[in-house]
């Protein structure tokens, strides 16, 4: 069934104020700033992320991606960057959401679920029950010796993602290997609140205006 709502767009792996301005000008609802990660191409320094956050006007959301899992380290990361949303790319203890809420009441919490199989449905619903404001379904693999926590350029099992969207009481973003060719199909299959894209709108690592325009046209 066709959704009556506009699919929100998060442009991730923003690596400069110029990329942020381009993404906003072309219609991004949210920007993603990737903090220190065990692997992946999109990492930026905290100082640069903070600079982008300061230059980003409302109502654009700034998502700070963190691989930290201890509450105090997540809080310290947020204080360095100042983003209005924390994207937790790894699993955290159940009590972490309440601790973060207490310390950072104005900051929204988005939990990434790396979709591998049906078991991820329970993981997603537990994150919501524990306090996540939104979910983001991605294609990493946290079980590897060197964890993959995003930026893989791979598509995952959208049937599992569809089940998560259908049962989630909070908004769900879909990520992982999206591009202009598969984005419409992704929306129809998964029916997410928003799409998150990194490599599919880049050329040689840089945000590519033409690829982003083509992507946005494909889903409008
Ligand atoms: O890009 C990275 O290096 C990265 C590493 C670890 C976690 C997240 C990372 N990227 C940010 C994202 O969340 C991506 O937008 C998401 O994984 C989708 O990426 P892609 O498949 O390239 O569109």
UniProtKB/TrEMBL annotation:
Encoding gene, per UniProt annotation: trpF
Keyword Glycoprotein: no
Similarity section: Belongs to the TrpF family.
The protein's name in its UniProt record: N-(5'-phosphoribosyl)anthranilate isomerase
Source organism: Spirosoma taeanense
GO biological process: L-tryptophan biosynthetic process
UniProt keyword list: Amino-acid biosynthesis, Aromatic amino acid biosynthesis, Isomerase, Tryptophan biosynthesis
Recorded metabolic or biological pathway in which this protein acts: Amino-acid biosynthesis; L-tryptophan biosynthesis; L-tryptophan from chorismate: step 3/5
Entry keyword Endoplasmic reticulum: no
